[in-house]
Amino acid sequence: MVEDMEKAQGLIQALRQQVERAFQGKPRVVELTLTTLLAGGHILLEDVPGVGKTTLAMSMARCLGLDFRRIQFTSDMLPSDIVGVSVWSKQAGDFKFNPGPVFSQLVLADEINRTTPRTQSALLEAMSERRVSVDNTTHDLPTPFHVIATQNPLENYGTYPLPESQLDRFLMRLSIGYPGEQIERMLLLERTDSEPVDNLERVVSLEEYLGLQALVTRVTLGEEVADYIMRLVKQTRMDERISVGVSTRGALAIAKAARAYALIKGRSFCIPDDVREVFVPCCAHRLSFGAALSGATREDSELFVEELVKQVSIPV
What we know:
Helices cover 44% and strands 15% of the residues. By secondary structure, the chain is of the alpha/beta class. The protein folds into 2 domains: 1-76 and 104-192 and 203-218, P-loop containing nucleotide triphosphate hydrolases (Rossmann fold), CATH 3.40.50; 219-316, Magnesium chelatase subunit I, C-Terminal domain (Helicase, Ruva Protein, domain 3), CATH 1.10.8.
């Protein structure tokens, strides 16, 4: 069990350094991904193909020592391909449940918006309750359980938008973007046939990782910071250009993320800056815009939320 802040900081720093050996040039993406995982949440990575989404997920799984499975979503995939199926066993004279790939500690749901809504919904119960129901029987998922989903921009051919109920289950939505010119040049010169993820080492034990997650829950979130979160959430519900503001689940997600971010920064208490750092990635994907902003892209929604944050005074 991770008991003291000094040991926690050592583990977190080692995790970041190890992940950045394979996923280079995006320290904030690594920081926010680790924030989400320590808060016990799920991540949605939205970006064009080929910028490192899969590398980031695999690097996190390798450094955390988590059981990892990758699901490639396609238009003909069925829910049973994800959660599993019951098969008749002649020897036992009964049906035997064969678990699907969702029964892993870290699941990469690759190109989740290329499959139908029916199949997308197979992850809904898993992400919300950490269990799945098949043939009137409930099966618990392993601990910890995280989903890192990737999706292509919605304007790409052959995509199905995720419903609001499923978007609300993702603690954060992140975008990686293209690497800097120097980083990309270095990759061209140094990258060979070997995968950089294969050279990463496990940094923490399962007990230490669960200890870090437990330590997040003990980070203090004071009344003034809680009031600040509520003012920000209320701002999203009052703006006439937003048809559906941040939900109560969204407000709780902000508090969880702020606690985890504070721990990563080496504090046992939250400050308003923690909330400001996580508010946009926690909330931009949870909003539904009215007619005035219909068709808003990811970039548009994030810029809009950034402007909302600036309208709310910061507690001293």
